[in-house]
From TrEMBL:
<dbReference type="Pfam" id="PF02518">
    <property type="entry name" value="HATPase_c"/>
</dbReference>
<keyword id="KW-1133">Transmembrane helix</keyword>
<dbReference type="GO" id="GO:0005524">
    <property type="term" value="F:ATP binding"/>
</dbReference>
<dbReference type="Pfam" id="PF07694">
    <property type="entry name" value="5TM-5TMR_LYT"/>
</dbReference>
<keyword id="KW-0812">Transmembrane</keyword>
<feature type="transmembrane region" description="Helical">
    <location>
        <begin position="103"/>
        <end position="121"/>
    </location>
</feature>
<dbReference type="GO" id="GO:0071555">
    <property type="term" value="P:cell wall organization"/>
</dbReference>
<keyword id="KW-0547">Nucleotide-binding</keyword>
<feature type="transmembrane region" description="Helical">
    <location>
        <begin position="163"/>
        <end position="184"/>
    </location>
</feature>
<keyword id="KW-0418">Kinase</keyword>
<feature type="transmembrane region" description="Helical">
    <location>
        <begin position="6"/>
        <end position="27"/>
    </location>
</feature>
<keyword id="KW-0472">Membrane</keyword>
<keyword id="KW-0902">Two-component regulatory system</keyword>
<keyword id="KW-1003">Cell membrane</keyword>
<dbReference type="InterPro" id="IPR004358">
    <property type="entry name" value="Sig_transdc_His_kin-like_C"/>
</dbReference>
<feature type="transmembrane region" description="Helical">
    <location>
        <begin position="39"/>
        <end position="59"/>
    </location>
</feature>
<keyword id="KW-0067">ATP-binding</keyword>
Length: 416
């Protein structure tokens, strides 16, 4: 009974701190850099490990039992390799003052499980929630069995009751704590998505209602300005004015095209797109801008499949991304485009060596009117990219580090 009571108090402390961590970090996720988030996760897990050890119950002389495995497990799997190393070292060090042969057992288990976490942590967050729940629960069950079975062989202490209580509480507690963590993360992600979608909805209505009305007269204006420029008897001064007006009108046309694509993102005619052809066309269109910024373009094709979409829109998405990348490298750099096919998915990685974005700016990427380019930017480019890719059933992942660069990965279901 003492063991059960002790473990339940330990569980309560863990639940309270998980909720607190959620309040501090998960809700502020978009404003905190991933590196700092990991440090905070390591900090909370460390506190929980120490508190668990303080609340530990001695079953047999020199052997204490508690739920320290939960912060070790979750901290390592969500935090990555460095956090695993730190928590593993902390677990062993913090166990030393309690003394006894239990230290060797702790060290053995920590090393074995650290190796498992090391192999898994990089892929853990990509797995479905059900898999994560099942896996963490299974690991906790395995740990609970080993933590009692190994010493009981050598020291002959075991009662079925202890086995049963420890194993059941640790396994069930791990399941519930993981479930709670996932629930809180999902709620936060959904909340942010809803806010973004509401904004998009407003822009979409606006775009649909005014863009068409403006596009047609604008096409005539551009046409007439071009005619003026072609006339021989027009004074040079007028031609300069007409050329300036044409530049501005063309820029407006680009903005309206972005709005129109946004208002109607779903491809009307789905084609099997040959990505290499589209990317090469995009390169031809963008190369004058790249040349102006002394940007070197590298393109490598490794993909084997085609994807489904509308060429014009797909090209527009690529152009918008590449334009941003080049604009982020005002003093030159490298823009790399690499394609790949893996498990029926086709990937396009676009990487630049530009000025990058802070986590706060990265979180706002794709929001209507978000631009850091003052007069020059419209804040529509990435919004349209997100919309087009979504319309093609694809996904976008963006990584960016200030002064290092940005890498954007588009993934689409392959089309045989
Ligand atoms: P715009 O280019 O008109 O400003 P976008 O939606 O295309 O609007 O981009 C929004 C903002 O995101 C840009 O102003 C820029 O600050 C930032 N951004 C986008 N792509 C990159 C990139 N590759 N590197 C650095 N910053 C970027
Ligand atoms: Mg842009």
């Amino acid at each position: 009974m003492t063991l059960l009571k002790g473990l339940l108090i330990n569980l309560l402390v863990i639940l309270v701190l998980v909720l607190f961590y959620n309040m501090v970090v998960v809700n502020q996720q978009k404003r905190i850099s991933p590196r700092f988030q990991k440090s905070v996760l390591a900090f909370f897990s460390s506190i929980l490990i120490i508190l668990s050890l303080l609340l530990a119950i001695a079953i047999e002389e020199n052997f204490v039992y508690d739920l320290r495995f939960i912060p070790f497990l979750l901290g390592s799997l969500y935090g990555g390799k460095k956090v695993t190393l730190w928590l593993g070292a902390l677990l062993i060090t913090a166990r030393i003052p309690i003394g006894g042969d239990g230290i060797w057992l702790t060290a053995l288990l920590v090393i074995c499980f650290s190796l498992i976490f090391f192999c898994l942590s990089s892929r853990f967050e990509e797995k479905p929630i059900k898999w994560r729940l099942f896996f963490t629960t299974f690991l906790a069950f395995l740990y609970s069995i080993l933590a009692l079975l190994i010493p009981s062989f050598y020291y002959g202490f075991h009662t079925i009751e202890t086995f049963f209580i420890y194993s059941l509480v640790l396994t069930a507690a791990t399941f519930f704590v993981t479930y709670l963590t996932e629930l809180l993360r999902t709620t936060c992600i959904l909340q942010q998505k809803t806010i973004k979608n509401e904004k998009m909805e407003i822009v979409s209505h606006l775009a649909a209602s005014i863009s068409h009305e403006v596009r047609n007269p604008l096409t005539s204006i551009i046409g007439f300005l071009q005619l003026i420029l072609e006339q021989r008897d027009v004074p040079d001064k007028c031609k300069i004015y007409a050329s300036l007006a044409l530049d501005e009108a063309s820029r407006t046309a680009v903005i309206i095209d972005d709005y129109l694509t946004f208002a109607n993102p779903h491809p009307e005619k789905l084609h099997a797109l040959e990505i290499d052809k589209e990317i090469l066309q995009c390169r031809d269109l963008i190369s004058p801008l790249a040349l102006k910024h002394s940007v070197d373009m590298k393109i490598v094709f490794f993909h084997t499949d085609k994807i489904k979409g509308e060429p014009h829109k797909f090209r527009q998405a690529l152009l918008n991304i590449c334009k941003n990348s080049i604009e982020a490298m005002p003093t030159g750099g490298t823009l790399t485009i690499v394609t790949a096919t893996k498990y029926n998915e086709t990937f396009i990685h676009i990487t630049d060596t530009g000025q990058g974005m802070s986590p706060a700016h990265l979180a706002r990427l794709g929001e209507p009117y978000f631009s850091l380019k003052e007069q020059k930017g419209t804040g529509l480019g990435m919004m349209v990219v997100f919309r087009i890719v979504e319309g093609m059933g694809g996904n976008i992942k963006v990584n960016s580090e200030e002064q290092i660069g940005t890498s954007i990965t588009l993934s689409f279901p392959s089309f045989a």
